[in-house]
Design a protein that fits this description.
Largest sheet: 4 strands, antiparallel
Strand order of the largest sheet: 2-3-1-4
Structural class: alpha+beta
CATH architecture: 2-Layer Sandwich
Number of domains: 1
Strand content: 35-45%
Low-confidence stretches: none
Number of helices: 2
CATH class: Alpha Beta
Helix content: 25-40%
Order of helices and strands: EHEEHE
CATH superfamily: Lrp/AsnC effector binding domain/regulation of amino acid metabolism (RAM) domain
């Protein structure tokens, strides 16, 4: 079973479309949605394990120009 995380992203003013377009091509990113509220984009990352999710976030998402801040929320299974 893959590990899934929701990455909440705040972008620089006026850069949301550009950032979303860049994130659409990132491996292991299964969806990119612009949203309203304190964050501008929510990305779903699916990878083999926690380390792989962390690698996608730190090496592929954080390096996209125009991202100001991120919060990563891991999905957990409830019994």
């Amino acid at each position: 079973m893959a590990t899934r995380a929701f990455v909440l992203i705040e972008t620089s003013v006026g850069r949301t479309r550009e950032v979303a377009a860049a994130l659409n091509g990132v491996p292991n990113v299964s969806s990119v949605d612009a949203v309203t509220g304190p964050y501008d984009i929510i990305v779903v990352v699916e990878a083999a394990d926690l380390n792989a999710v962390g690698d996608v976030v730190t090496s592929r998402i954080h390096t996209v120009s125009g991202i100001v801040r991120t919060v990563t929320c891991l999905a957990v299974s409830l019994p």
